């Protein structure tokens, strides 16, 4: 270290250095270079498709030739108001709401336990236990329930063993939601919807609860509140953003689902199935597009309401 | 000076006894039951792959056998579907890795006008229900008159896989001390050298995790794929057709087990790679 | 108008480019704004080759920004910066013969100690065996031997700091920049490192530019100190000059916590009618009524507080509305309690008149 002259070799000049010099000279060039490819892709492919969807919904189909008439019209949207179609829309929204409520109730204990009582390894195990089903194949999950809910399947067998068959039959005898068997009734469909979306509800609630400082609950107890009161007045309000966030997932996913209703549930159609059927063999893309816009509008309204409730404060 | 505020703990002796570390039994049971509810169905699927019963979903299975694995091995349509799925997943993941990393580089630390809008745009493909993305792509293909092909599937998959890679990359980049990039410049490395010798090694496992999650996501995607595949069948589409019109039920079960295995492993691996980042990293 | 008025240490500062070979770093009218915030607001500076130069000031005073301007992480909005006479406008950090020791050390987590230290050499294309030898040499210089293959996460704060230092030194920079490098260390380690850094700098003969908010550190280590306030340099000088002869209230208060007397009070005690600084250690505390000594000023007052500082005591007193602090050896003080009367005294020469501008 005695010689202090710069006797070390200088780095080699090259394209890389000159490019870096250019980046240094122009602030913002790097940002532009980084953003252009993804934005280009997403802008053209994704936003472009959404625009195409919107466009198609304003076209109509020629009844005789079956081809798409590319002229602006509101006729297709008007078709949505036909009783059969309106029925589909309302039915789907109702199911989505029920599923959301039930998921919230079922998700809360898991989320609460994981957030407040699980520590270290147990917490990691819980996290994994919720993540795994979330990431597992949607189709396999639906298929699993088809196996379970079949007349000769595991659920019926367990019910028989436990002597719960009369209870199950009574449930199936209920109007509207019942049916000949669980796998072709709204009841069964409802159950599987909850199963599919439960992880989506657990994780946001857990995240919201973890943000609640333990000292708040202790303070509430310290001030004399019974555990039930503490729950109602302290914990539940603070968990609301998580509940709202989770509900966005469950609501939106139910609105658009077309696979589960095909496999489990009665033969009446939901929005998703209608879209699928319309764009398939029928080739009625404009009407399919119009139907697809409905969940978008519903979710936009729901998101605005959720924002007021503070679902996005956590992010 | 001694504090003169009297303690009011005496008012609620029972509550004080309930220590924070012990959860009420009812809560534990409820939580456990929900978790069981989540996992049991998948275990059943695995069980059914070994059943000897061919025509129904009889429970309990009359017998257990391995023969269906051999049968599935011999089915050419299963192989075609599997190959297509793997190819699509590979290409879509590659595209998503590039686009997701670029976007993460831009969004991780720099504040710029429209940053939140870009964030939203990246997450939108996965935030909107699959059917919207599916029908939107379908509309676009119809409008521009592009016929269905390998690439129509890949385009759809790459679009929603970007966010998965992006989130993992951003989580990691935020954890890195920003001064190490400056330190690299300070020591004589230019931008590309810094990327190669400092950024990439530190980003490596996050990209690996993101890539694996993207692969898993693409591999078992069916909702958007049915709209963009036309007559082709990826493995999930094959399964969907089997669900609606079953040919050999146990073979479907075997395929289901394969799908479980091929998606569980990358997810577990991705989890272990990004453990330190906390819950937000592996999220969609 | 008094002969006493200190003119700005002008000759050198007037033209930073006066003698390029001796001027390691020269700032001329440099400014850097972040939106409405003027982080650096017209700074002229000259760091001489081979000196240990400290930039001292509170948080947000612009000293770190100046350091980053020298390194090249920021570019000035106005003015010129020269390093050994060469203008560096538009020259990226990787082309400057300057190395930085960062406040958080910025060690590469994916490389071991040797990999970190040899990084700069690797970029230059030095062969592996040679660069590892040079790296070990640098590590020996900073007294960190035997940790070659540890990762930064396995090192303590003091050890990481030495690695950061070695990593910078191994590249033989013309100027070494240090950004509050001792901030995260505990007191004992900090004192140790102060001595080591100083001896290292002297042994190597490099120019060190050192940023700190700790005036004790700046005074004990540096050859010259620049005191920063709100983006400007208010005084440059040797530690003695800055401490004994502060230029204005800010320097007086920031460097050593001096008493600041308003012009009328200063005039009362025999000084010119200007703002003046009076060092606490220049004031003696005696019982009331005791004669102060020849030529000394005597002032009676009441004790407000006595702060225990080990070998010394800091006495805060109120003298007819004037609040003064005195620093006296513990032994000289007998049993003084708050509320008791006392007498302060000092020599008029200790009163140092200052300029009354910001």
How would you sum up this structure, described in words?
The complex is a heterotrimer of chains A (315), B (284) and C (358). Chain A is 72% helix and 1% strand. Chain A is mainly α and 315 residues long. Chain A has a single domain, classed as MetI-like (MetI-like fold, Orthogonal Bundle). Chain A has a two-stranded antiparallel ribbon. Chain A is globular. Chain B has helices at residues 13-17, 25-48, 67-73, 76-107, 115-127, 130-144, 150-175, 179-186, 191-219, 225-228, 235-244, 249-273. In chain B, helix 8 (179-186) packs antiparallel against helix 9 (191-219). The longest helix of chain B has 32 residues, at 76-107. With 358 residues, chain C is of the alpha+beta class. In chain C, a hairpin with a 2-residue loop joins strand 9 and strand 10. Chain C is elongated, with a radius of gyration of 24 Å. Residues 1-18 of chain C have low confidence and may be disordered. Chains in contact: A-B, A-C, B-C.
Pattern of helices and strands of chain B: HHHHHHHHHHHH
| Sheet with the most strands, sense and barrel status of chain C | 6 strands, mixed
SS strand fraction of chain C:
25-35%
Number of strands of chain C: 18
The fraction of residues in strands of chain B falls at: under 5%
Give start-end ranges of low-pLDDT stretches of chain C: 1-18
Give the H and E element order of chain C: HEEEHEEEHHHHEHEHEEHHEHEEEEEEE
Rg result of chain B: 25 Å
Query: How many strands, which pairing sense, and closed or not: the largest β-sheet of chain B?
Result: none
Helix- and strand-based class of chain B? mainly alpha
Radius of gyration of chain C: 24 Å
Structural class of chain C comes to alpha+beta
Note poorly predicted spans of chain B.
1-20, 279-284
- What is the overall number of helices of chain B? 12
Largest interface: A-B, 102 and 95 residues
List the strand order in the largest sheet of chain C: 6-7-8-3-9-10
Q: Report the strand count of chain B.
A: 0
